[in-house]
Amino acid sequence: MDQPSLKAVLGQAQAFFSSKGLRFTKQREAVTTLIFRTQEHFRPEELCERLRKSDSSASRATIYRTILHLVESGMLREISLGGGERLYDPNFLKSPHHNHLVCVDCRKIVEFEDPNLDIMQNCITRRMGFSPTEKALRIEGRCDMLRLLGTCKNFNAAGKKGQRDKASKG
Amino acid sequence: MDQPSLKAVLGQAQAFFSSKGLRFTKQREAVTTLIFRTQEHFRPEELCERLRKSDSSASRATIYRTILHLVESGMLREISLGGGERLYDPNFLKSPHHNHLVCVDCRKIVEFEDPNLDIMQNCITRRMGFSPTEKALRIEGRCDMLRLLGTCKNFNAAGKKGQRDKASKG
DNA sequence: GGCAAAATGATATTGCGTCTCAATCTCGCG
DNA sequence: CGCGAGATTGAGACGCAATATCATTTTGCC
């Protein structure tokens, strides 16, 4: 699937909830919609704020609970940037094997796929006595090049500590 | 360097501090010693507790500050397991290129090195417009095999939230 | 000794996430 | 329709890690 429509995603969510004997309530639908409409990585608190600004609403507790459910359903995944930050990634539906490259300076995240890396990752995992999961791999780097090209404007939301004003422009 | 002696490590730390016009105080030495004596990954709060139990002492604030300094010096690195946990790794002095394999179930961490992976990692990093750093790469997996061998006893401390009682066995 | 800068530690504060629990909603049933 | 069980919600309390504040202490230096 290349770019599942929001409608399809909502259907999938609904199916998951009802398969668990849970209800796909107004609030859950609002949260799910918000998550999968923009398809951006997000922090839970961020999502709370976005939802507060929108017309629909749900309490923090409900938002957190819905996120957990969606993770359990496999539609959403937690990714970690380091720094103790918790991020969620709604893009595994469209590219189930992608990995993340994270800039150690500005926390920018780029997604990529690489079949060879997948193979090597599997080998290593097994070699060390682990079994591979569908879960992602994370590489850290520095997005200098991107920055040179002036692409590093569109960060990953953040807006907190990741801000280094020294890196202005080329 | 294969296994730098504690004395050498302390010397290095001292050098770093004085190069910055900072003092290598009793407290900082105590913290540094505690970190590099066992060479285990640790959580800051864990370290506080360990230090409290020892004969020497330092306040939480000082411990956190010292950790930051050591990270800045390059002697210590932050690694992330996901789940919003922040861990520090004192082992980059002896193996500067190692990576981490993390069990998604029990949070066990295994260190490994793989030159081929390093190469591929560099390629990908550059391809995506990033420049490689000395920083590590993290792979997630499931330590079933290890567990079969009964090796998974010696976790990585944890003992808190990682515990899913519902997911007992497959 | 005495000063200025650095360091410390007790405490307050923040941020994020979880838990609790009473009130509300929904569904199926008679 | 009215009922009851169970699911859901939301407000707020709570816990924990980490940071910030600031008065006090220590240190290096003259």
Note down, in words, how this protein is organized:
The structure is a homodimer of 170-residue chains. In chain A, 41% of the residues lie in helices and 17% in strands. Chain A is of the alpha+beta class and 170 residues long. Chain A folds into 2 domains: 6-90, Arc Repressor Mutant, subunit A; 97-170, Dna Ligase, domain 1 (2-Layer Sandwich), CATH 3.30.1490. In chain A, the strands form 2 sheets. The first copy, chain A, has a 3-stranded mixed beta sheet. In chain A, a hairpin with a 5-residue loop joins strand 1 (77-80) and strand 2 (86-89). Chain A is globular, with a radius of gyration of 18 Å. Chain A starts with 5 loop residues before the first helix and ends in a 22-residue tail after the last helix. Chain A binds chain B through residues 78-86, 101, 103-104, 110, 112, 114, 116-117, 120-121, 124-133, 135-146, 149, 151, and chain B through 78-86, 101, 103-104, 110, 112, 114, 116-117, 120-121, 124-133, 135-146, 149, 151. Strand 5 of chain A pairs antiparallel with strand 5 (131-142) of chain B, so a sheet runs across the interface. Chain B binds a DNA duplex (30 and 30 nucleotides) through helix 4.
